[in-house]
Amino acid sequence: MSEPAAQPTDSLARLDARLLRFARERDWEQFQSPKNLAMALAGEAGELLAHFQWLSEAQSAALDPAKRQAVAHELADILNYLVRLANRLEIDLLAAADEKIALNEQRYPAARVRSDPRRASEYGPDGA
Q1: How far apart are CA 83 and CA 13, in angstroms?
Q2: In this structure, CATH architecture of domain 13-110
Q3: Which residues have CB under 8 Å from 112's CB, separation 6+?
Q4: pTM for this structure?
């Protein structure tokens, strides 16, 4: 009988388990309803946006180390709330992402939309 494969240290499942343990140790699950988690996720996205507000395109791509660290922490908050929300709703994030990419590949065929960032509804029925 073979040994079970070790779980990667960077997997969403590992992060999900750690976040669940963190919440349970603090008796916070009672506050982590899908509604509350979605609201927290939106709030953290706003905090991320604040770091980029008023920056030029070039400045936003070349953050100084302190700003980069602050942005990394906001991204981590967003990821953590997203993983908790998916857990509460029993959604497999990786499967959902794969499904969404497949849908987007159909909606935005590369040959039709290359270098054209419009929304799918703006292309019209003939692809123009």
Answers
A1: 9
A2: Orthogonal Bundle (1.10)
A3: 123, 127
A4: 0.84
